[in-house]
Amino acid sequence: MKRRPLSIALAMGLAISLFVGAIATSGAQGDYALPAGDDDVNGAYFPWVPYGSELDGMGPFYGAVTVQFLSEDPDAAADLYFFPGLGENDAAYDDPYVVANVQPNASVTVSAGAMELEEPGGSVRVHAVPTGTDYDDDADEFAFDEGEDFLAITGTVKNVSPTPSADAKTTAANITIDGYSGLNAEHFGETDNGIYEYVLPIIQTNDGWNSVLRLANFGPEGDPNANSSYTVTIYESGGQGAAGPSAGAFTGSLRSGEVAHHDLLNEEGFEEGFVGNAFISSNQPLGAIAERYKVDDDMLLTNTGRAESEGQATQVAPLVFRNYNNWNSGISVANLSEMDTTVTVTYITEGGSQVSAEQVTIPRRGME
C-alpha cells in the first residue's frame, strides 16, 4: 500500500468562515460535465441548494448561489451557466440559467427559484465561458473558438429560512441563515485505483443536534456508467478509528445529478449522543455536505466534505472565538493518515502572539 504523508482534515463549529471561495483551476476543453480526471473543467459545484426543504420542522429553507468571475483582464467578459441537477441520467444538467456579459471580478447571485430547482432542492454546477460562446443543448457541448476555454470562477451558496432571499441579502424575516463555499475541480481527486474518497470531519446527534448527510453525483451526464455506487463509513469521536469497529455504515447508488440524503437519527444504529466523522468512497466524483442542525435554537451549520487527498499536515483556521459576544468555536480534527497521529493545536491572537497550545493523539480515521 502506498503510504501518504501524515494529513488531517479540519472542520469549524461556530466560526464565521463560511464564505471563503474555492478558486477553480484552468481546465482543458472537453466534456464540460466531467469535473475530474484527465479533462479537469473549471467550475463551481454545490452538492445541495435547498428550495423549500425542512429539517424536523425547521424551515422551509431556500438557497441562492453567488458566483464571482475571476479575471485580471479588464477587457474580458463571461457568460455564466447555472446547471440545476435534475437527477435524470440522460439529462442530468439540462436547461441552464444563463447570465451573460459578466464583467471581470463581478459577482452574480441566482436563487434556487430562478434556476427552477424542483422542491425540496438539488445539486447545482456553474461554468463560465467567454461571452458569446455557443452552447449546444442537445450535445451538451460548448463551441469554443480556438485558444478559448472555461474561465475561472469562485462561488458560495447562502441558505435562509423561512422566507426566500433572491439576492442573498437577509432581513429580520430570516430566522436561520447558513451557507458554504462551492467546490472546485480539484476537490474531485481520484485515487490510484479509480475510487474517489472524501471525509466529513464532524457529524453529530448530541445535545439536541442532528445531522443530515447530502451526497451529489457530479459524474458525467449521459454516460450509461455514470451511476455512482457509494459507501459511507462512520467512526465515533474518542474511539479507535479504523483500528476498531465503525459506528455504522450505509451504501447507496446515485444517478448523475441526483442527491442522496442520510438523516443520522433515521439511520439504523444511530441514537442521540453521537459525535464522529464520516468517510465516503465512490466510483464517481461526489460532492458531500453535512447539515448539522438544532431545532430548539433554529441553528444550522454546514460543513463540506473534502477529498482525502486534500489533507495536509498543517491546517489553518483563520477565525475562532472564545466567549466573544456569546460566540464560541469548536474545532474538529480528523486523521486521514495511515497511522496514529499526534496533532498540536496552537491558538494565536489577532496580533500574532501565541496564547496557548494543546496536543492530542488521534488514531487512523479517528476524530477529536
Number of strands: 23
Largest sheet: 8 strands, antiparallel
Mean pLDDT: 85
Oligomer: single chain
Query: Nearest-angstrom radius of gyration?
Result: 20 Å
| Element pattern in H and E | EEEEEEEEEEEEEEEEEEEEEEE
Number of helices: 0
Share of residues in helices: under 10%
Task: State the gist of this model.
The protein is mainly beta and 368 residues long. It is 0% helix and 45% strand.
Please explain how this structure is put together.
- This protein has 368 residues and is an all-beta fold.
- Helices cover 0% and strands 45% of the residues.
- The chain contains no helices and 23 strands.
- It has strands at residues 8-12, 44-55, 58-69, 78-84, 97-102, 107-111, 121-130, 134-136, 141-143, 153-161, 176-181, 196-204, 209-217, 228-236, 248-254, 259-263, 275-282, 286-294, 299-304, 306-307, 331-335, 341-348, 354-362.
- The strands form 6 sheets. Strands 2, 3, 4, 5, 6, 7, 10 and 11 form an 8-stranded antiparallel beta sheet that branches.
- A hairpin with a 2-residue loop joins β2 (44-55) and β3.
- The chain starts with 7 loop residues before the first strand and ends in a 6-residue tail after the last strand.
- Mean pLDDT is 85; it is low at 1-5 and 14-40.
